[in-house]
Amino acid sequence: MPVGLAVVLRLPFLLEPLRPDEAGYLMVAQQWHLSDSTTYGSYWVDRPPLLLLIFKAAVGQGPLGIRLVGTVAAAALVAAAAAVGQAVAGRRAAWWSSLVTAALVSSFALGGQEVDGELLAAPFVLAGCAATLWAVDERQTRVGRLVLGFLAGVAAVAAVLVKQNFVDALAFAGVLLVLMARNPATRRRALETAVAGAAGVALVLAAVLVWAATVGPGVGDLFYVMYLFRFDAAEVIARRDLARPEARLLGLVAVALVSGLVPLLTAALWQALGPPRRRDPLAWALAAMVAVGGVGVAAGASYWRHYLIELVPAAAIGTAMLARGRPTRWVRPLVSLVVVSSAVAMFVGGGIHQIAGDPEEAATRMARWLEARSAPGDTAVITYGHANVLLPAGLSSPYPYLWSLPARVRDPNLKLLISTVEGPRAPTWIVEWNSFDSWGLDADRRLAQAVFENYHMVAVVAGHNVYRLDRRP
To answer: What is the dihedral angle through the alpha carbons of 253, 256, 259, 261, rounded to the nearest 10 degrees?
Structure first.
C-alpha cells in the first residue's frame, strides 16, 4: 500500500512544466555521448555521469518522461524502505518504514515532486543498506551473503555516481561491518559481507575510471566536476551571495522540523544510543548515516529544500529501529506527524499553486513566445541559466553554462559569454531574465554594451527583456 501511495501522490505533478534542474539535465543528456572527450559534450554541469545517463533515458519524452522516472524512483525507495524495515524488525517495522518514506518522498515541503539528483540517488542508498542488513543476517547462506554484499557495494557506489555527496550507504555499511567484526560471534558474517561489498564497489569504480581515462573526459576532469568544483563554488557563494542562502537555510531548518524528519531521527537516535542498546552496531551505523547526511545537506551551501531527501533513507531505518522497541510510545505519534505534515504541505502547497499560479508560468510563457518566433538553427542565451525556457522552446545555447553557479564560478568576468555574444556563434536571442549585472557579474557593463551593439530589443515577455541579433550568425 505505501508504494501505491507514493505513486498516487506524484500523479498531480506528472504534466507540470519542467523545473530548471530537470530541463537542464535533459538538455545536457540530449547532446551528450559517452565517447565525448569533454565531460558532458557542449554543456557543463557539476554532476556525476550516472545521473545524466538516467536523464538520457527520458530524453524526447518531455515532462512526462522524467516525471515517470521520478515516480519509479519514489516507488523503489518505498520498496527498499519496506525491505530495510523487514530486516530490522519484521513486518510491522516494514509497514512503518515504508509509510514514513512514502510520505516524505512525496512531501511538497521537501520538494519531493521535483526529479533531481537527491530523489534518484536515494533508492540506491536504501537498497544498499537493505542488502547489507540482509547479508549479515545469521539465517543467510554463505552464497546469499556474498551475492547480497556484492549488490550492496554496487548500490552504494551507484548512489555516489548519481549524487556525489550520497555516501550514506557506504558510511552505514562501513560502521556496521567494522563493529560487527569486533564481535567473534558476528565476525565471519561481517568480513564476508565486507569483502563482497568491496568487490562490488571496486568493479563499478573501475568501470567508471576506465571510461573516463579512455573514451571520456579524463579522470582529473571528472573528479573536478564531482568534487573540486564544490570548493570553488563555496568560495564564490561566501564572497558574493550569503543573504539568499542564509534565508534558504532558515527555511530548510524549519521544514526539517515541521515535516517531522528531524524529530523522528532525533527520537530514533535517542532510543538507539541509550541503554541497553548502546553497543548495538546498527545504532552506530544509523548515527554515522545521519551525520554523513547532515554534512551532505550543509555542504551543498545553497540549501534548497530537496537537499533534505538525503535524510529520508536514514529516517526509514530510524523508524524501523523505533518499531522494534515500543511502537505505541514512539512510532505512531512520529509517523502521524510525518504523514499529517506531508498531507498539510500538499494541500497548502496545492492551494498556493492554484491561487498564485504556476511558479514556472513566466518560463512557460517565454518558451512559447520564443518557439513561435524562432527559426530552425536559432540559438538563445537566458541570463543566467533557466534551461526550462530553452528546452520547451526547442532552442540550444552556444554558451556552455545552463545554471548560474557554474557561470559565476567558471566565467566570473563573463569573458566567455561576451566573446560568444560578439563572435561567429552569437546566439540569435538573448533573454535578460536576471539582470546582466546580477551577482556583480557585469560591473563594468561590458556584456550590456556588447548586447546593445549587436542586438536590438524586440519585446518584453513576462517582465523580461528579449533581444534579437542584428546579424545572422
So the answer is: -160
pLDDT at residue 134, as a whole number:
96
Nine-digit cell string for 174: 562501513
Lowest mean pLDDT of 233-237, 387-391, 427-431, name the range.
Answer: 233-237
Burial of residue 422 (CB within 10 Å: 0-12, 13-18, 19+) is middle
Element (H, E) at 441: none
Say yes or no to pLDDT of 286 above 80: yes
CA–chain centroid gap for 92, Å, is 30
**How many residues appear in the chain?**
473
Q: What contacts 448, CB < 8 A, 6 or more positions away?
A: 436, 437, 442
What CA–CA distance (Å, rounded) separates 201 from 203?
6
For the CA atoms of 37, 39, 43, 47, the dihedral, rounded to the nearest 10 degrees, stands at: 170
- CB of 339 within 8 A of CB of 440? no
Rounded CA-CA distance 115/109 in Å is: 14
- Please give the C-alpha separations between residue 168 and each of 29, 71, 99, 309, 399, in angstroms, as whole numbers: 26, 22, 21, 12, 35
What SS3 class is residue 208?
A: helix
Residue 420 clears pLDDT 80, i.e. is over it: yes
**C-alpha 78 chain-centroid distance:** 17
**CA-CA distance, 177 to 229, in Å (whole number)?**
32
DSSP code per residue over 74-138: HHHHHHHHHHHHHHHH-HHHHHHHHHHHHHHHT-TTTTTTS--HHHHHHHHHHHHHHHHHHHT-T
- Residues 53-82, mean pLDDT to the nearest whole number: 91
